[in-house]
Structures are given as structure tokens and as C-alpha cells.
Write a structure and sequence with these properties.
This protein is α/β, with parallel strands linked by helices. The protein has one domain: Alpha-Beta Barrel (TIM Barrel), CATH 3.20.20. Helices cover about 40% and strands about 15% of the residues. The protein contains eleven helices and eight strands. An eight-stranded parallel beta sheet has the order 2-1-8-7-6-5-4-3. Strand 3, helix 5 and strand 4 form a beta-alpha-beta unit. Helix 2 packs parallel to helix 4 and helix 8 runs parallel beside helix 9. About 45% of the residues are buried. Bound molecules: orotidine-5'-monophosphate. Orotidine-5'-monophosphate binds near residues 61, 190, 219, 249 and 251.
Length: about 280
């Protein structure tokens, strides 16, 4: 199964558009684990076990592991997810972007070392910085398009020529990702939940691509507006040809409780968020 098929299967099996982001921050761990970077694996594995029947993807953010010299725990976590939730694809959030020869190493890191099913990439350096990832035909490559942070507007919202009516940078990227760049049908796009009207625009320009949508929960993105803007595209395509949405939440799920009931609390938030998203379809 390739990444897109994995997403579709998980969406159906778990009746979910929710992705749980794994951004472990030891200072927020419960009880005696607080401040202990040696517990990163245990914390994330408990979250995975508590939510694996509610998600269409997991998304570990590599910086939260690397900052604590915990890459070995990330490897163990990836293996754990494959073991207990083989039906849920894993997106390694690394936001890599570099020249081809270096990108080859990053692709190896994501897909061979960590066994990720997809990786997030910065497309700023152009197609040759993306191409090495496309040599893994079953894997997904999800390009930053219209990110959730306020500063995303600095570049992504600029018009290609300073004239009204010219496409903005993110619109140009969405068009390329839907067409010339999508050699093997592996590409997806990141669009922030904090900008629902731009989700709708990206969906219009890229109707078949999966959209990774972070920004609900801690960043205050509107979950309902996100689904209305992005879910299964506009009316132009039959439902089975439209791309899925992967609505990602990290802190709101991970730190729903600071006590020893953190995994049960994470499950409750994941259940509520899944229901909220599903109601908005
Ligand atoms: O690629 C991402 O996942 C991403 C893109 C984006 O535009 N905004 C964004 O917040 N993210 C990531 O999504 C996660 C958001 O975390 P919460 O705000 O806690 O849900 C973090 O790991 C971010 O690095």
C-alpha cells in the first residue's frame, strides 16, 4: 500500500481525519517523569496506545527528539507504532529542504532509518530538492504550502508579480504540486487550520492531494471551518478522487492533563476532536 492508500484505509477504519502530533516536551510530563528526557519514548508510546483507534495518522516532530539526544527513542517509537498500529501511517515532521545530494541523505533518514510513511518538506529550494524523496514511490512527501504561523504570510502570501490577480506564492506551489511536480502521485500539502479561506483555495487548486492541516487546538484554528474548507474537495470531482485531510493536533492532546491520567485525558480530547471534525463534514 502506498501512503495515500494507507491514509484512505485508516480514515475508513478509524472513521477519522484526526492526526495526533507527537511533540514530547519533558518539562510537561506528569509526576515523576517531569523533566526526564529518558521518558520520551514511554510518554509517546502511552499516547499512541491510547489514541491508535481514533487517528488516521501520527506525526512525530523530529526536533522534540533531537533536542534531547533522543533519536534512539524516536526509532523505538516508530517501531512501536508499526507494531501496535500497523494500519495508521506515520508522518515524520522534519520540514527538510536542501540540495539534491543532501536531500538524498534526509530521504534515507526519514524512510530507511525511521521507516516513516511520509515526511514534511520545505519546497523553497525547488523541485530538485524534492526529487530524491520521490525515488521512494510508496512514500508521501508533504510540502509546506500555506503554514499555520503568522509569519507564513511573509513569503507565502506574496504575489509572484506585484499586481492584483497574479497568483500568490502558495497558490503557485499548490498548482505545481497538483501537476508537474507530482511525478508519482506522492505529494501532499501543508495548509494551516488558522487560515480556512486559504485551505479552500488550496483545495480548489489541488483537489486530489492530501492536505496536512495543523493548527487546531493550541494555535486556535477553527476545526469546523477547516473541514468545511478542505474535506474531500469541491464539487468538481467524484468523492473517491478527492484528497483526504489530515487535521493535526499536538499539545491540546498530549497535555490534556498534567497528571498520571495523561493518556486517558489525551484519549478524551482525541475522541472529542474526532467527533467535532466528523460532524463538520
Ligand atoms: O508541518 C507541520 O506539521 C506544521 C506546519 C504548520 O504550518 N504549522 C505547524 O504548527 N506545524 C507543526 O504542527 C505542530 C503543531 O502543534 P500544536 O500547535 O501543539 O497542535 C507542531 O509540531 C508544528 O511544528
Amino acid at each position: 500500500m502506498n501512503f495515500i492508500q494507507q491514509l484512505q484505509a485508516a480514515e475508513t477504519l478509524n472513521d477519522s481525519m484526526l492526526c495526533v502530533g507527537l511533540d514530547p516536551e519533558p518539562s510537561k510530563f506528569p509526576g515523576s517523569w517531569k523533566g526526564d528526557a529518558g521518558r520520551i519514548y514511554d510518554f509517546c508510546a502511552a499516547i499512541v496506545d491510547a489514541t491508535k483507534d481514533l487517528t488516521l495518522a501520527f506525526k512525530p516532530q523530529i526536533a522534540y527528539f533531537a533536542a534531547h539526544r533522543a533519536e534512539d527513542q524516536l526509532e523505538r517509537l516508530m517501531a512501536h507504532i508499526k507494531r501496535v498500529a500497523p494500519h495508521v501511517p506515520v508522518i515524520l515532521d522534519a520540514k527538510r529542504g536542501d540540495i539534491g545530494s543532501t536531500a538524498e541523505q534526509y530521504a534515507k533518514e526519514a524512510f530507511e532509518r525511521y521507516q516513516a510513511d511520509a515526511v514534511t518538506l520545505s519546497p523553497f529550494m525547488g523541485f530538485d530538492s524534492i526529487e530524491p524523496y520521490l525515488r521512494y514511490p510508496d512514500k508521501g512527501a508533504i510540502l509546506l504550502c500555506r503554514t499555520s504561523n503568522p509569519g507564513g504570510s511573509d513569503w507565502q502570501n506574496q504575489r509572484l508579480a506585484d499586481v492584483d490577480g497574479q497568483p500568490r506564492l502558495y497558490e503557485h506551489l499548490a498548482r505545481l504540486a497538483q501537476s508537474d511536480w507530482n511525478k508519482n502521485g506522492q505529494l501532499g500539502l501543508v495548509v494551516g487550520a488558522t487560515f480556512p479561506s486559504e485551505i479552500a483555495r488550496v483545495r480548489e487548486l489541488a483537489p486530489t492531494l492530501p492536505l496536512l492541516i495543523p493548527g487546531v487546538g493550541a494555535q486556535g484554528g477553527d476545526a469546523e471551518a477547516t473541514v468545511k474548507a478542505g474535506w474531500r474537495g469541491g464539487p468538481a470531482l467524484p468523492a473517491d478522487q478527492r484528497g483526504p485531510i489530515i487535521v493535526s493536533s499536538s499539545r491540546a492532546v498530549l497535555y490534556a492533563s498534567s497528571g498520571n491520567d495523561f493518556a486517558a485525558a489525551a484519549r478524551r480530547v482525541a475522541l472529542d476532536t474526532r467527533a467535532l471534525l466528523n460532524r463538520a463534514r
